[in-house]
Structure formats: structure tokens, C-alpha cells
Amino acid sequence: MNTASPRPVAPVQPELEDCCRSGCVPCVFDLYEEALARYERELAAWEAVNTAPPPP
User: Fold this and answer.
1) What's the Cα-to-Cα distance from 12 to each of 4, 36, 39, rounded to whole Å?
2) Could you give the CA distance from residue 8 to residue 41 in angstroms, rounded to a whole number?
3) DSSP per position, 1-56
4) How confident is the model at residue 1 (pLDDT cuts 50, 70, 90)?
């Protein structure tokens, strides 16, 4: 039985045209930065579990 969790998927960076330039809080780029930081934490945790050598 495979109990490994899937590798996290990076968020898609918004295009410049995705910003409406009206000063939204949060902006789509703020949301992307938050999602990217979350992805990097989740990826580091996933790699720690899934790249560790198997126990002897």
C-alpha cells in the first residue's frame, strides 16, 4: 500500500495583466507570494520525508 503523500505543486505566477492596478489589498501578487511561501514550506517538509534513506 502506497501511503506517500503527493509532491506539492507550485502555484502559478500571475501574469502582469492579472493585476487590475487599483490598489487591491491583497493584490493577486500578494496572494501569489503567500502561496509560494506555503509551497516552499510544504515542499521542504515533503522532501525531508520522501528523500530520507530507508531505515536499515
Assistant:
1) 24, 9, 11
2) 10
3) ---PPPPP-PPPPPPGGG--SS--SS-HHHHHHHHHHHHHHHHHHHHHHHSSPPP-
4) very low
What pLDDT, in 10s, does the model give residues 21-55? 999 999 999 999 999 999 999 999 999 988 877 77
The set of cell numbers assigned to 46 is 515533503
Residue 6 in any domain: the answer is no
Instruction: Tell me the whole-structure pTM to 2 decimals.
Output: 0.81
Residue corresponding to grid cell 496572494: 31
What gap in Å lies between CA 48 and CA 4, rounded to an integer? 12
Residue 26's domain spans which residues?
A: 17-50
- Tally the residues of the chain: 56
